[in-house]
Design goal:
Layout lengths: L2 E5 L3 H10 L26 E6 L23 E5 L3 H13 L4 E3 L10 H13 L3 E3 L13 H10 L5 E7 L2 E9 L5 H9 L7 H14 L8 E2 L4 E2 H24 L1
Parallel strand pairs: 1-2, 1-3, 3-4, 4-5
Antiparallel strand pairs: 6-7, 8-9
Length: 254
C-alpha cells in the first residue's frame, strides 16, 4: 500500500512517526523503556510522499490548486489539519494520483466543520473515492470500504484493540493488537501493566493519566457535534479498549 500525507498540523507528524517507528519516536517511558514497539516493525517504505504546508496561509485561497502539490501514485491520501480551501481541493489531486481513498481525521472541531465535511464527502463520492472523517482519528474502525479497511488491517492503527492477561486480579501482560494512530496505545499498555483491575475507578485514573501524559494532543475546545472536547473522546476510547480487553480476559478464565 502506498500512502501520501498532506499535513497542515503537527499532529500529522506523530502519525507518520508512528508508522515509521524510528528509534526515538516514543520516549514516553524514558529510561524505563523496554522497547515494546520493536514488534510493530516499520512501514517507512509504504510512505511515498509527505508534504507539509507552511504556516501563515491566506484566510481565503481563491485557487487552492496553486498551493497543492502534485502527488505521486498512491492508494490512500491522509489529509491532516488542512486549510479549508486546500481540503476542498484534495479530492481532485487524490483522484489524479490514482488514490482509492482519502482520510481526513478531526482532532480539532475547527479543522473540518460539518458543512465542509459534507462538501468534501460529496466531492469524493462523485469521484468514486472512499472516505473517512474519524473524530478523533482513534475512533477509526472498519467501514466496509476496501481500501480503508485494508489500511486498518495492514498498519494496525485506528480504534485501539488490546489483549490482556490477568493474574490474581492484576493486569499481567498487555498486547497491542491495534494502536491509536498517534501511537499512544503502546504507552498506555506499559502504564497499566501490574495494575489492579479493581476498584475500576483507580484503573480509570491510571488510563486517564497515561492519556494526558503521552500526551493526547486533541483539542480541549468543546465540539458541537459530540458535546465535549475531542480530547475527552479520545480518553473514553482508550478506557473502552482496556475495559473490553479485561472482559475478554475474564471470559477466558471461566
Amino acid at each position: 500500500m502506498r500512502l501520501a500525507f498532506l499535513l497542515g498540523d503537527e499532529y500529522g507528524r506523530r502519525v507518520v512517526g508512528n508508522l515509521i517507528n524510528y528509534s526515538t519516536f516514543c520516549q514516553a517511558c524514558g529510561h524505563a523503556c523496554d522497547y515494546c514497539r520493536t514488534s510493530y516493525g516499520s512501514y517507512a517504505s509504504d510512505i511515498v510522499y509527505v508534504h507539509e504546508f507552511p504556516p501563515g496561509l491566506p484566510a481565503f485561497i481563491d485557487d487552492p490548486l496553486e498551493y497543492m502539490p502534485e502527488l505521486p501514485r498512491c492508494d490512500v491520501v491522509l489529509a491532516v489539519g488542512l486549510h479549508h480551501d486546500l481540503l476542498l481541493a484534495t479530492p481532485e489531486v487524490a483522484e489524479e494520483a490514482g488514490a482509492k481513498a482519502v482520510m481526513a481525521p478531526i482532532e480539532d472541531p475547527r479543522w473540518i466543520p460539518p458543512g465542509l465535511r459534507r462538501q468534501v464527502k460529496e466531492e469524493l463520492e462523485e469521484r468514486g473515492l472512499e472516505h473517512a472523517f474519524p473524530k478523533p482519528f482513534c475512533t477509526l474502525e472498519p467501514t466496509g470500504q476496501p481500501a480503508i479497511d485494508s489500511f486498518i488491517q495492514r498498519y494496525r492503527i485506528g480504534k485501539p484493540l488490546l489483549e490482556i492477561e490477568l493474574a490474581g486480579g492484576y493486569i499481567a501482560s498487555v498486547t497491542v493488537l491495534r494502536s491509536a494512530p498517534c501511537g499512544e496505545t503502546w504507552y498506555l499498555a506499559q502504564r497499566i501493566k501490574w495494575k489492579k483491575i479493581n476498584p475500576r475507578e483507580e484503573l480509570y485514573d491510571v488510563i486517564a493519566k497515561a492519556h494526558h501524559t503521552y500526551p493526547c494532543t486533541a483539542s480541549m475546545e468543546v465540539d458541537p457535534e459530540i458535546g465535549e472536547p475531542i480530547l475527552h473522546e479520545g480518553g473514553y476510547v482508550a478506557r473502552e479498549a482496556v475495559e473490553k480487553a479485561i472482559e475478554e480476559a475474564l471470559k477466558r478464565r471461566q
